[in-house]
Amino acid sequence: MRVLVVEDEQLLADAVATGLRRQAMAVDVVYDGEAAIERVDINDYDVVVLDRDLPLLHGDDVCRHIVELGRATRVLMLTASGDVSDRVEGLEIGADDYLPKPFAFSELIARVRALGRRATAPLPPVLERSGITLDPNRREVHRDGRQVQLAPKEFAVLEVLMRSAGVVVSAEQLLEKAWDENTDPFTNVVRVTVMTLRRKLGDPPVITTVPGAGYRI
């Protein structure tokens, strides 16, 4: 899942981004509304965590712009105001969910995951394919009943491949979904991660390399 965090309180924004990355999400961070517009115009995000009171361009305007793009991107709006009318107004302009500050980080994670599921075709909460089960909420992977310990990026790559349901996923698509925008597009990080993932999942190999196209399970 790829997430954009838009929050002008930099310490909070960076803390949220760090926490989401620990949940195997690819996260970009910006600190004002104009920068948010630039990112959503370039990148395809599953979820945008959007502070409402932003400098340079108000969060409401950013939300409207995201809606006008017509993508499947979901918006979780944050605000320091707990007033019901503010929440209603935010939802009416196109936000998909609303979370007042201060919030419990566990609730933020749950809401981001729920919105991420709504940004894609409906799938069962636990993914199963080729003897592998992947539980995104518990961040657990099993193969033939054996638990497999994966690093966050390995988990993210496996989740993207399993959600593709046998369709070939290119290295570029894996970079977009599992890494943030600071990753060098010419790096071999995808190949190395897939190699490590294959080794951890064990034999017989379940991830197939399609020459010149990408990978699939």
From TrEMBL:
<feature type="DNA-binding region" description="OmpR/PhoB-type">
    <location>
        <begin position="124"/>
        <end position="217"/>
    </location>
</feature>
<dbReference type="InterPro" id="IPR039420">
    <property type="entry name" value="WalR-like"/>
</dbReference>
<keyword id="KW-0597">Phosphoprotein</keyword>
<dbReference type="InterPro" id="IPR001789">
    <property type="entry name" value="Sig_transdc_resp-reg_receiver"/>
</dbReference>
<feature type="modified residue" description="4-aspartylphosphate">
    <location>
        <position position="51"/>
    </location>
</feature>
<dbReference type="InterPro" id="IPR001867">
    <property type="entry name" value="OmpR/PhoB-type_DNA-bd"/>
</dbReference>
<dbReference type="InterPro" id="IPR036388">
    <property type="entry name" value="WH-like_DNA-bd_sf"/>
</dbReference>
<dbReference type="Pfam" id="PF00072">
    <property type="entry name" value="Response_reg"/>
</dbReference>
<feature type="domain" description="OmpR/PhoB-type">
    <location>
        <begin position="124"/>
        <end position="217"/>
    </location>
</feature>
<dbReference type="InterPro" id="IPR011006">
    <property type="entry name" value="CheY-like_superfamily"/>
</dbReference>
<dbReference type="Pfam" id="PF00486">
    <property type="entry name" value="Trans_reg_C"/>
</dbReference>
<protein>
    <submittedName>
        <fullName>Response regulator transcription factor</fullName>
    </submittedName>
</protein>
<keyword id="KW-0238">DNA-binding</keyword>
<feature type="domain" description="Response regulatory">
    <location>
        <begin position="2"/>
        <end position="116"/>
    </location>
</feature>
